[in-house]
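Comment thread on ticket #2218

A.B. wrote:
> Attaching the input chain for the structure job we discussed in standup.
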Amino acid sequence: MKRLIRFEYIALLMLAALVFASSGWTETQTEQAQKNQGGQDESPGILSENLPDNDLSGQVRIDEQLGSVAALDAVFRDETGMEIRLDALFDKPVVLLPVFFSCTAACAFLQADLVKALNEVDQVPGKDFNLITLSFSDDENETDAAAAKKNYTSLVKREFPPEKWLYLTGDRENIRKVTDSLGYYFIKKAPHTYVHPSALVVLARDGKIIRYLHGPDFSSFDLGMALSKAQQGTPGISMKRRVLSFCYGYDPARKTYTFNFFKVFGTLALTGLAGLVIFFLFPSKRKDEEPLSNERDGASGPGA
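C.D. wrote:
> Ran it. Output below, let me know if you need it in another format.
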């Protein structure tokens, strides 16, 4: 009977382990499907200026390229007019926001919301990651970049080195090279007039694309989780972020991080059942020791 009870608990333990493994496998398959989808050849980032508005929905989009490497050999000019190759900015993870500086609608909100997330995120801008605001408008130059940088960096409430937040402009060829590699597709309708997606991209220090955060609202939590993913494999990830990364998984449909119920529940169940199995596997030792102690007590009693 005891063996039967022990067998049942071992069976439950194996079932919990199977549930836990299945949840991890499902998450892995989702990531792989995203990578496979992202690997398809797509049309160029800057498309026809003469497309009618009813064709925009299929052309203005983001095809996520998770796991791919961005085109870091592209060359731009920063807000001071200095020429800079993109890979020179990748000594640490990078948050890259594509906008155009003369936009007073969506792009202004995106930049302001990024500043809000920067003020609240646990990681330190300039220390744990660099920032790039990239203009996809070939009509803009370093003067436009400098004005935009002054406006938005002044809203940052925490200390960080301004040189770690670059505002870049470039020519059509280099812009296309980067946006194509990111799967970021937009349309130039007229000079200084663009139709474009609203998203930022978090990249690892080697240029690998880790996450897309879709606007117009950038959550500091989502940004922090994406940066933690970008930092994996390098020293310095806090235990807090490791626990959060375990408990929260990225939901590609909602474009945000959600609580991973099955993973957490499976782990707790696995731990609890392991404790029960240990408890039921070793009761005989305790029971064997009790008669011995009673015999010793009797031997040392009055009749001895």
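A.B. wrote:
> Thanks. Noting for the ticket: The chain has two domains: 2-35+270-299, 39-259.
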